Amino acid sequence: xxxxxxEDSTVYKAAGAVGASVLYLVSTRLMRVDYKLAKxxxxxxxxxxxxxxxxxxxxxxxxxxxxxxxxxxxxxxxxLFGLVTLLFLVSLWQGCVAAVARVLMGICLFTxxxxxxxxxxxxxxxxxxxxxxxxxxxxxxxVSYSLSLCATLAxxxxxxxxxxxxxxxxxPLVALPACAVSYSFRAEDGALRRALRGGVHQYRTLxxxxxxxxLLDAAAP
Length: 221
Description:
Blueprint: H1 3-32, H2 69-88, H3 96-115, H4 130-156, H5 166-170, H6 175-186, H7 191-219
Helix pairs in contact: 1-2, 2-3, 3-4, 4-6, 6-7
C-alpha cells in the first residue's frame, strides 16, 4: 500500500474511533434521562453527569415510546460494534471477517427482539404490534446480512459466477416470508404465537394427567 494511503487510512480510523466514542457517550447520557434534554444538567465538564435527573420508570407517550432501557443499551453496543467493524475489520480476509461480524450483529438484535420488549404493548384492537414489527424488520436485516456473507465468501473463493445465477437474484425474496413468520410469532395475537401457546398448554395438561395417573397406579394395592 502506498504510504499516503496508509496515512489516510490511519487518520480515517482515528477520526472514526473518536466519533464512535462521542456517539457512545452522548447516546448513553440521553438514555439515562429517557431522551429528555430538560433533565440534563449541562456543565462545562461534559463528562460530569451527576446533576442529570435519571428516569427510573419510563412512561408511554406515543406508539413508539421506548419501554426497555436494557434493549436500548443492547442496540447501542451492537451499533458501536458495527462501527468498529466498519473501521477495522473490512480489510481482513477480503471482507469475510466483517461479513461474519454483521451476521452476529443481526443475530443479537433478532434475539433481543424476542426476549425484550422495546416498545409498550399495543392497545386492544390495535392494527400493528410495534414489538412484532421491529422483530420482523430485524429478521429481514438478518437475512440480508446472511446473503451478504454468502456473497463475500463466494468472491473470496473466486466463485463469482454463482452470484450471476437466477436463484441468487431471487434469494433476497427469502426476507419476505422471514419477516411474516417473525411477526406472527412475536405479535401478541399472532396466529403462530397462539398455536405455540396452545401446544405448550396441551403438553403441560397431558403431562399433569400422566403424573396423576402414575400416582394413582402407585397408590393402588
